[in-house]
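Treating backbone geometry as a discrete language has practical consequences that deserve illustration. No coordinates are needed to read the tokens, only the vocabulary itself. For completeness, the protein is quoted in full, as a sequence line and a line of structure tokens:
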Amino acid sequence: MEKSRISLRQILGELLLTAGAVLLLFAFYEAFWTNVESGKLQEQAQEQLDETWQNPRKQLSPKLGEAFARMYIPAFGDDFQFAIVEGTDENDLLRGPGRYEQTQMPGEEGNFAVAGHRVGKGAPFNDLGSLETCDAIVVETQTAWVTYRVLPIAGDEAPRLDCLSSEQQDKLQAEYSHVQGRHITVPGDVSVLDPVPSLSGAIASEGILTLTTCHPQFSNAERMIIHAMEVENLPKTAGATNNQRPAALEETA
């Protein structure tokens, strides 16, 4: 009886099938299982945030990995809300969007910058590419509701400016003229975290929110950047409830 021979083509075929199966398993893990894991951690962060706000501490500076605010993006639906945690390392971002430690806090002049995953691990920033000029991004802290509006996006034929004050519109023609509502850059571009984004040493006169995420999807090759400007800071009133929520939360896509 002749011994069967295994050809090189057969070997390569088996290797490709194995590699394909591994890639499918990895994609499942990234897109599904990490979402489940992050969902549980995000729930814990939300619970910790509620507990902290009900029993406020004298020291309000958050510790690494600790939730300190909530983010709402009405254009993504009334169920879009994420607790924001302090820090941007892998463990922090598994819990939810994370603040770059060297940046400002919500409602402060300067740059409040937040990183988040786009695929898997909760994928809080999966839809950033669909944001449009003047879309609202609302950040809730223990003491205030801070509303930001996405700045004009390059390529818009007639970008809206009516969501900004006349003074802010003037600044978009001056010291903030280079700050775009959305652009793509390289992973190492830390200038987007400057108090006036991408203008090192400049003194900020406005509150800016910067969101960063990977681009394109399933890749770390580049970064998508969203910049928005603060348009309202509504202090919370002791004992009040939903009647103090900003009107921007009722907007829809």
